[in-house]
Amino acid sequence: MRTAKKQRKRTAAEAATKSFDNMVAYCEGTLCRHVVLSREFGEQIQKCEKFCDACSKLKALEMRLASFRSSMLTTTTKKFSRDTGFEDLYGGGRRGQLLESRAYGSDDDAGGGDDGTQPLSSLIRDELEKRRGSNKPTATRRRVPKNCPVLEPKCAAIKEVSVEMRVEYFTKLHAEMEKNLATYGVINERPRLTLQDIKNCAAEVELDIFKTKKNIHMYRRALVGWFKSLRDLTSVGDLHESILAYGSKKDIRLENDELKNQCTLLGFLRQNSIKQE
Predict the structure, then answer these.
(1) pLDDT tens, residue by residue, 71-80
(2) Three-class secondary structure of residue 100 per DSSP
């Protein structure tokens, strides 16, 4: 049992040492970072050409590595004065060894030891930041497909929701609204709405949800709720309130347009009558 535990510990220690050596080789080497990682994980090896420091800034990397290696070879020592009182002993005796160890430790605390570790730490930190940053979504312009049916397709109110997703949900919403209106019109007097009006109504509803919800989950949940509500009303032959409200707004707009036309016509007739007089 003890032998098995020792063997597992030995294996784990060897694996940790190997991983550490690989990391050191990764940081101190000038080979493409992606090639090294692909080889380590058994993936297809492809050079990144410009996405790592080894490929894009090779000369700068070589200079940093040279500076790092030279700093590792630099050591500082302190000389003891001859009036310590134990120069007759080798190394100053026990007390001399103690003072020497303290001097060595003070050199490290003053920055001698950090000279070697700081460049390595900076190099590792930079590479990790680069790899971590590669997973972040890039701030690119939203691509708008030709004849996009949604309103304000370039709007980025919810960054996770793409234009394609908006079009997909709009298409479903539009289809459910058309079914609801068609079913209602079988036994009831249909509002004065055209297919284009239903399309405009669906586009306005989708845009309102897109702008008022805070994330993709709330956006999806709201639209799924609309789908369910429309289907439930369609099954019993009732008209959804959004379509009814849109029809009412259209009637008001038509009435206003008719009044404007009448006013314009009356004004024209009055001007003609005045001229004739």
Answers:
(1) 766 644 444 4
(2) helix
Q: Are 198 and 178 in contact (CB under 8 A)?
A: yes
Question: 134 lies in a domain?
Answer: no
Cα four-point dihedral sign 131, 134, 137, 139:
positive
| Domain end call among 14, 39, 73 | 73
112 part of a folded domain: no
3-state secondary structure of 208: helix
- DSSP readout, 165-196? HHHHHHHHHHHHHHHHHHHHHHHSPPPS--HH
Q: For residues 136 and 161, is the Cβ–Cβ distance under 8 A? A: no
- Expressed as residue numbers, the domain containing 250 is 163-274
Tell me, rounded to whole angstroms, the distance of Cα 64 from its chain centroid: 31
- This prediction has a pTM of 0.44
Cα–Cα distance measured from residue 223 to residue 205, given in angstroms and rounded to the nearest whole number: 9
Q: Is 36 within a domain?
A: yes
Q: What pLDDT, in 10s, does the model give residues 170-212?
A: 999 999 999 999 998 888 887 778 889 999 999 999 999 999 9
| Domains of the chain: total | 2
